[in-house]
Write a structure and sequence with these properties.
29% of the residues lie in helices and 17% in strands. With 140 residues, the chain is of the alpha+beta class. The chain has a single domain, classed as Conserved hypothetical protein from pyrococcus furiosus pfu- 392566-001, ParB domain. A four-stranded mixed β-sheet has the order 1-4-2-3. Helix 3 crosses helix 4.
Length: 140
């Protein structure tokens, strides 16, 4: 499925379900990021798609040359991409009011590696207020 597909509410999965299908070792961080958009982890809003890294806001690329451990991790992921090894999905927010279609909220190393390799990424797309997904809610 590519990122252009419209979704009905019944075809979307909750964060809990995405974690069941592809366990996320940063689940609590991902859930916290989603909560800030006004969505709880049991609300269906995700679809699994393949996305070009060029369509994601580049402001979230790892750009600290002194972050040696992170740079090594990205290099290792780049090698995996070149060898055809599939990477776990990143988490993206579909943004309809931004200069870029997608905003990364989990998976910076995988995103950076995919961007450097000009590769497509497997991604869980959060459709919040668009594409049949739930409307965001205000958090106090």
């Amino acid at each position: 499925m590519d990122a252009e597909t419209e979704h009905s509410a019944s075809s979307l999965l909750s964060l809990n379900m995405t974690d069941h299908l592809y366990p996320d070792h940063d689940f609590s961080s991902t859930a916290d990021n989603l909560w800030h958009y006004g969505i709880d982890q049991d609300v269906p809003c995700f679809s699994l798609c393949t996305v070009s890294s060029a369509r994601v806001d580049p402001g979230q690329l790892l750009d600290d040359p002194d972050a040696f451990e992170s740079q090594e991790k990205v290099s290792s992921l780049q090698e995996a991409i070149r060898s055809g090894e599939p990477l776990p999905p990143v988490y993206l927010l579909h943004t309809v009011s931004s200069s870029h279609e997608y905003y990364l909220f989990e998976g910076m190393h995988r995103f950076t590696a995919s961007h450097r390799e000009q590769a497509e990424m497997l991604a869980w797309l959060a459709h919040i207020g668009c594409c049949g997904g739930p409307a965001p809610t205000e958090r106090a």
